[in-house]
Amino acid sequence: EGHLQAAPGRAIDYEFVAEYMRGIFDRYDVQKIAFDRWNWKHFRPWLLKAGFSEDQLETHFAEFGQGFQSMSPALRDMETEILNARVAHGGHPVLTMCAANAVVQSDPTGNKKLAKNKSSGRIDGMVALANAFGAAPVAQEEVKSYQMLII
Predict the structure, then answer these.
(1) From CA 74, how far away is CA 114, in angstroms rounded?
(2) In whole angstroms, what is the distance from residue 71 CA to residue 64 CA?
(3) Are 107 and 68 in contact (CB under 8 A)?
(4) Which of 18, 81, 98, 107 could form a disulfide with 125, with the two C-beta atoms 3.0–4.6 Å apart?
(5) Integer Cα distance of 106 and 104 in angstroms
(6) Measured between alpha carbons, how far is residue 102 from residues 5, 98, 105, 123, 127 in Å?
(7) What does pLDDT average to in each consecutive run of 10 residues of the chain (151 residues)?
(8) CA distance 109 to 124
């Protein structure tokens, strides 16, 4: 139905994703992209090949861990914004599905993260939203509003 842009083929092609992201940067005023640092060293060369500069990689791409340390503050900010009705979901069916599947795991000290292994289905959209909140300047007063594009 056009709600999800998938990479062609049976596996995710880093070259396709890098070129797609180049197009996003060319069309929008992207300030920051949060990413799971796990495969960065494999993805980075494809971004350079797609036309990103070293400076853009340094200033516009933010490593974001998927553990309690990174995820807990992001989930706290995301929850605050959702409960205060400052997040416009738009009824997107893929994000709705991911939200329905998302399970929050807590550690003994109360830190939280989204747990894929405890979820019943895909949660990637919610993980991406949490990553975006982790990279977004939510607490800065000069930021009045912003849009998050989940890709």
Answers:
(1) 11
(2) 8
(3) yes
(4) 98
(5) 7
(6) 21, 6, 10, 5, 9
(7) 88 94 95 87 96 95 90 93 88 92 94 89 93 74 53 50
(8) 25
